[in-house]
Structure formats: C-alpha cells, structure tokens
Structure prediction request, 225 residues.
Amino acid sequence: MAQDSSDIELFMLTSDDYEEVAQLFDEQYAKRNPLCKVCKETSLEDIGESMVKDIKRTLASGLSIGVRDKTTKAIVGFRLTDIFHVDKTSTYHVGEEDEPSIMYQLLARFSPHGKEIQELGISPILELFAVCVHKDYGGRGIAAMIIKKTLELGDEQGCRLAVVQIANSLSEKIYNRLNFQTFKVLDLDTVADEFDLDTSIIPGETILSLMVKNLPSKTSNPHPQ
Ligand SMILES: CC(C)(COP(=O)(O)OP(=O)(O)OC[C@H]1O[C@@H](n2cnc3c(N)ncnc32)[C@H](O)[C@@H]1OP(=O)(O)O)[C@@H](O)C(=O)NCCC(=O)NCCS
Prediction:
C-alpha cells in the first residue's frame, strides 16, 4: 500500500466543520457504504435527523479527526468519534422507538450503547462512530492512519475500551489488524424480509459486526500504588 501522505494533513474537527463534513458524508460515505446502499438511504437527507445529530455530536467531542488536502484545502476524510460514559445518560440516538431510518433501526440491533456492552462495566468507552476517506485518496492507508491516531487520543483521555460498528469489509480489515475482537454480529440475510432488504446488491458485505478493543489507558490510573 502506498504510504505517501505528503499531500494531506490531519487536524482536529470542530462543530464549525459541519457543512463540509456533511457534504463529504453525503457524497462519499452514504453513496459507498454497503449498509446505506442496502437500506436505500444513500444521502444524509435519506438517513435523516439521527445522522445529522450524531455528526454534530461527534464533531463537538474534540476527538474527531479530519484529513485535509494541503493544496486544495478540502476535507477529504474524517474519523468521527465520541466518548461514551456508561454511567451517564446517553445522548445517542440509535434505538429510539420512532426512528424512521432503516439503517438506524438496524444499527440499534448491535449498538455500542447496548446492554451487552454496558454489562462489561467498562467506562469511559471510545465510540468510533464513522470513518470515511474520499475515493480519490483511497487505498493509501489514510483510514488506518486516522483510526490508529484516534485510539491514541482515546487512550490519552482515559478510555478503557474502543467500540465500533462495522458495515464494510475494507474497514473490517483495518480493525482486525489493530487486534479488535468481534463482539456481536448481525447477518443482514436473517433480517432481509423484516426490513425489506435486497442483500444481493452488497455481495460479501452482509455481515455487520460490533468490534471491541481494550485500551491500555495511560491515564486511568495516574497514581499507581
Ligand atoms: C472504508 C474506507 C474508510 C477505507 O479508507 P482507505 O483510506 O481507503 O483505507 P486504507 O487505505 O487504510 O485501506 C484499508 C484496506 O482496504 C484496502 N482498500 C482500500 N480501498 C480499496 C479499494 N478501492 N479496493 C480494494 N481494496 C481497497 C486497502 O488496500 C487496505 O487493505 P490492505 O492493508 O490489505 O492493503 C473508505 O473506503 C470509505 O470511506 N468507504 C465509504 C464509507 C464507509 O463505508 N466507511 C466504513 C464504515 S464501517
């Protein structure tokens, strides 16, 4: 894999980046992500208000990384992330009963905020929400680079566990290589009738997984005995 990253730079995203991140999400994430395709929700508008809220929530976290083309100054990638405190009331929108998005209804079946993760009793948790790299910059290790950087940031913030929902075999390769473990899976073929999904349009991409990784945490025990 080509590793030349001299034409791009990483920076921390803020709420001010919403419009540009939303545009990249709309044009690159929603159009190419297998789960968006099978749910026929291939734009931010299709997915709706829950995704808008989650993008805004993760931009405000101070943990989301952007990738900028140094020449054009355009944002060409993002790794949206937040910290989830198991013991506090979640602001997460997955799983609301009146959720209109099929994609969100499916994600709720294996949510990082679900009971099984909460029962691990680990907090705080680094929630790796969404990663995207513009296709013109793909296959150069940029996603792997920003995911690794995010794990370092989460570790510095005292996170003990990283959790991610995977709906794309390319990103699954990255998380496997970073020693994430599969915690729970959802085979879309088993819910195709219930959600009216034509899974033949996403061959090889029908297994959604919830993956976890323990973080060593540099700050969780600042005063060791
Ligand atoms: C998934 C995604 C973030 C990967 O970004 P990326 O910067 O291209 O990823 P990397 O370069 O770090 O590569 C990851 C692996 O995928 C491979 N890969 C990336 N693009 C590829 C392509 N178009 N065809 C084949 N393999 C590809 C890489 O070669 C690498 O595997 P390797 O290390 O064995 O060589 C990007 O394709 C994307 O934004 N997709 C749409 C949104 C999405 O689905 N996000 C993930 C949601 S779970």
